[in-house]
Amino acid sequence: MTSNEANRADLGKDPARVSGMFDQVAAGYDRTNTAMTVGNDALWRAATTRAVAPKPGEKILDLGAGTASSSASLARSGAQVVAADFSPGMLAEGKRRHGSIRNLSFVQADATDLPFEDGEFDAVTMSYALRNVNDPKKALRELLRVTKPGGRLVINEFSTPPGTLFRAGYRFYNSQVLPRVARIAGTNGDAYDYLNESIRDWPDQKKLAAWIREAGWTEVEYRNLSFGIVALHRAFKAA
């Protein structure tokens, strides 16, 4: 495998290739996200934190935490937050930026085989990461396993804008503009070609809600952010 091939994941979502790709974009990841979302990433992160509703004394898993920006936002509540990711490069960048937060810890973890006990967390969350797992249904079952009875799930993920015209413009932006923005921001543009492909291939809001129910979660609901570019799904584990 050449170095260029190692940089580029595909829809097979081989864990080693996806992890390697994120390792290589870690340093510029947050900067590129801010550029390509025109600053909306901060608004989406705030909405996710409100949906999780962290409280002091709770234990929260932020899976697919990346550089731990969302984890840090959750930890400011006083909750004990575990930032977990399968990319060591992302975790290293997260530790560099947020390692001084005392109630924030970092764990390398596979979303389909979590290294945590049953019922360990009051809340579990993933932001823009479930889409990159090669078996997302299994990941949803694993998240249910490690959540306490009565605990909650929040998934923030790219989704399908319901408006036809807006959806067409959004897809054009993803395919033609987004990789160029990534290259201008100094990040591997090939990784953002994969991002576009993975978003296009990802199920819409209703189908993801159905997957969450199938995994055993209850009271599943979702709401769109930014006209459906992303959607927040929220659910609970039966008490």
Overview of the molecule:
Residues 1-6 have low confidence and may be disordered. Helix 4 (40-52) crosses helix 5 and helix 8 runs antiparallel to helix 9. The chain is of the alpha/beta class. The protein starts with a helix and ends with a strand. The protein has a single domain (3-236), classed as Rossmann fold. A seven-stranded mixed beta sheet has the order 3-2-1-4-5-7-6, with helices on both faces. The protein is 46% helix and 21% strand. InterPro entries: SAM-dependent_MTases_sf, UbiE/COQ5_MeTrFase. Keywords: Menaquinone biosynthesis, Methyltransferase, S-adenosyl-L-methionine, Transferase. It catalyses: a 2-demethylmenaquinol + S-adenosyl-L-methionine = a menaquinol + S-adenosyl-L-homocysteine + H(+). GO terms for molecular function: 2-methoxy-6-polyprenyl-1,4-benzoquinol methyltransferase activity; demethylmenaquinone methyltransferase activity.
